[in-house]
Amino acid sequence: MGKKDEKTNVMRILEQKKIPYNSYNYLSTGAIGGVEVARALGEDPDIVFKTLVTVGKTKEHYVFVIPVEKELNLKKAAKSVGEKSIEMIKQKELLPLTGYVHGGCSPIGMKKQFTTTIDKSAGEHEKIIFSAGKIGYQVEVTLADLEKVVRFQLVEVAE
User: How many CB atoms neighbour CB 133 within 10 A?
Assistant: First the structure.
């Protein structure tokens, strides 16, 4: 983890709001999947989260932040946002919709503020780690601090 890491937009937003965070750069490890990233950071996969973007039957988009080892339960996720059903958006829709690429999607700094749900398990941890908005970069913040930049609900949506 080099000292001269480049700043991502997510880090700039956190600094602008005077929110303390730790940043991690795992580019040199070649880690790809979330569990690999957690290992590369030497962290428990339970505190490393991935950001998923979905679309509901109403065509509304929703963001879900869940532990990297888990899968999104689509039924619970739909219920949590008041939709009959939801599905993952197509990968090619991610960049134009959020401004982020697959593998570098963060709940902070999306082009538009979507309804965001973080898996309830995040509440069991002092801090959580998630993408800093660019592949190879992660940030660690407390939920209380995250709430200053992203409106979210804590609901059990992962399994």
Answer: 26
Q: Which residue has the tokens 């829709």?
A: 93
d(CA 157, CA 76): 5
User: Within 10 A of 6 (CB to CB), how many other CB atoms are there?
Assistant: 13
Residue 114 backbone dihedrals phi, psi, to 5 degrees: -100, 160
Rounded to an integer, what distance in angstroms lies between the CA atom of residue 81 and that of residue 91? 22
Strands 152-155 and 22-25: what pairing? unpaired
Cα-based distances in Å from 106 to 1, 75, 145: 20, 23, 15
pLDDT in tens, 97-113: 999 999 999 999 999 99
Token code pair at residue 9: 């937009």
pTM strictly above 0.85:
yes
